[in-house]
Inverse folding.
């Protein structure tokens, strides 16, 4: 299977933006160093998807009551015939030292290097989503975009770089998926390569995402070229209390797992964020 070579993508990215070669090289080296595993590997150890291929026998009648089930059957058939399938991997990290900064780095490489939008699914608590948005857009010196700004500032004098050039390479403000934004996912032309979508892991949101992903695949006959990050994926049931006391908890857990598994089959790359203390981070 021919997969995306992250290093080759980095070379092409720097060549495309050769006026900013020095700050970009320093930035990328620094970001890779922050996500170096204890065995010396970096983000290139992951399979970042394959070149997009056209799928066979994709269902077209989106009004069919069995449309989503037929879509899953079609995707399974395409996988069995080795035409195209999603790549699902574990993303390791350190819950104390680098959880949110690592998530920002993954998103940065996805939208800038791979030119692939991101969907980040949080456990069903708004505080986690709010904290990560602040980590991206906040103005404190330890926030992610401030790292980029600081590196570019070092080269303003001798590289003819102005004080706004760094914003070309920042992480933009995420779009929170809701009533008026879920439909973006159904239209390939509405999704930009630098888009970042956030949503909470509840049954309603997951159903709407699956619904719109299936429409997108039906129209375009290809998997969504998107990176999906699933936070707290090591929990038994991210939408429930995990205490096994009520029947509702068990039902929600089962429904969530089913919806997530459907979602995973429809995109290029899925990274399960299991944050254990097995990552070296010097942040």
């Amino acid at each position: 299977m021919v997969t995306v070579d992250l290093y080759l993508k980095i070379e092409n990215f720097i060549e495309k933006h050769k006026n900013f070669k020095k700050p970009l090289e320093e930035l990328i080296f620094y970001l890779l160093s922050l996500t170096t595993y204890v065995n010396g590997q970096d983000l290139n150890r992951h399979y970042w998807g394959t070149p997009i291929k056209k799928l066979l026998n994709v269902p077209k009648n989106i009004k069919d009551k069995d449309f989503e089930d037929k879509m899953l059957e079609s995707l399974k058939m395409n996988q069995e015939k080795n035409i195209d399938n999603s790549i699902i991997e574990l993303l390791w990290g350190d819950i104390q030292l680098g959880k949110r900064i690592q998530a920002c780095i993954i998103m940065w490489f996805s939208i800038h290097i791979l030119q692939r939008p991101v969907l980040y699914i949080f456990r069903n608590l708004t505080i986690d989503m709010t904290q990560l948005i602040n980590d991206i857009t906040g103005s404190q010196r330890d926030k992610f975009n401030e790292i980029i700004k600081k590196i570019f500032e070092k080269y303003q004098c001798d590289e003819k770089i102005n004080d706004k050039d760094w914003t070309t390479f920042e992480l933009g403000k995420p779009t929170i998926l809701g009533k008026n934004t879920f439909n973006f996912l159904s239209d390939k032309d509405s999704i930009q390569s630098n888009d970042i979508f956030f949503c909470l892991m509840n049954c309603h949101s997951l159903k709407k995402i699956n619904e719109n992903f299936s429409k997108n695949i039906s129209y375009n006959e290809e998997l969504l070229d998107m990176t999906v990050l699933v936070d707290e994926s090591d929990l038994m049931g991210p939408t429930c209390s995990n205490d096994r006391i009520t029947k509702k908890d068990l039902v929600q857990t089962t429904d969530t797992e089913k919806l997530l598994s459907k979602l995973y089959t429809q995109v290029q790359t899925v990274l399960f964020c299991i944050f254990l203390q097995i990552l070296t981070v010097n942040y």
Q: What stands out?
A: The chain has one domain: 6-280. Residues 228 and 261 are 12 Å apart (CA to CA). The radius of gyration is 19 Å. The longest strand covers residues 267-275.
